[in-house]
Amino acid sequence: LDAMKHGATSYTAEYTVSSVEAPSEEVKGRIIGAGGRNIRTFEKETGVELEIDETNEIRLSSFDSVRREIAKRALQILIKDTRIQPSRIEEVVKQVNLQMADLLLEEGKRIAEECGIYNLPTDILKLIGRYKFRTSYGQNLAIHTIEETKIGVAIAQDIGANVDTVRMGCLLHDIGKVVTDEEGTHVDAGVAVLKKYGFPKEVVATVSEHHEDKPFSSSESVIVWIADAISGSRPGARYEPHEDYIKRMDKIEEIAKSFEGVDNAYAFQAGRDVRIIVKPDEVDDERLTILAHEIAKRLEKEAEYAGQIKVTAIREIRAIETTAAK
């Protein structure tokens, strides 16, 4: 009970679907664009679905909280801008993506410092910053990590274990969950990252063993496992269906992105609408139709979904020329 009391945290996280207020009908019209071209470009660039109705509230829908935050910031900039057109949308989204890297770094520092850890590598801090935008079984990863670290440190102090190893192990135990483009389990991905950045083998072991996939090699590994279980099992901490939903969306996007010539893929509307962005120099118009069919067939075999999935493949070529200055 004393260890659980130490786990109390005041860290605030993002849980809900984002929304942005449009100041007028005119601005809403500019966001939509002629024939819907602006809203299509925005969704293509961000991977976030815009929902606009009779009210002035614009809802941004995506299972990926980082994408949603990028889209929200980009939309806020565009609303203040008189120029809302495809090229400007692309420019703003790129700009916000760069700003997001700085935000993740600051969030990573804040989370690490709340856990009592300083001077971590920048790339590790950016990954930790993603905790704010990630859930595990419905429990926000930043809150879970801070809570687990405080519990783990309290236990380590009580029994005389290595507090520094436990502190670092608790902070980094789920880092594999925010690593992108890594095959295998989140434990494998986390271990690979920690080895890459030269973390002590004792810390790597706590991450490697925190799901009991391997026998515990130290009391510190046992403490990290116990603290993880306490934080995750307290009443109201977790809600499994949300995590299952995210895994299904990730799987759908992974299948689509595995095809040659696909630049990116986004799952909308609970996976019922999948939009594929192809590399125009690798996929011609004839191949585009075949590719959409092949992806749909693969999704039929490998993806979990209800109803039907509509696969839309998008190939865009844009030529831009500038006149001589007068």
TrEMBL record:
CDD domains: KH-I_RNaseY (cd22431). InterPro entries: HD/PDEase_dom (IPR003607), HD_domain (IPR006674), HDIG_dom (IPR006675), KH_dom (IPR004087), KH_dom_type_1 (IPR004088), KH_dom_type_1_sf (IPR036612), Ribonuclease_Y (IPR017705). GO terms for cellular component: membrane. Keywords: Endonuclease, Hydrolase, Nuclease, RNA-binding. GO terms for molecular function: endonuclease activity; hydrolase activity; RNA binding. Residues 141-233 form the HD domain. Pfam families: HD, KH_1. GO terms for biological process: mRNA catabolic process. NCBIfam families: HDIG. HAMAP family: RNase_Y. This is HD domain-containing protein.
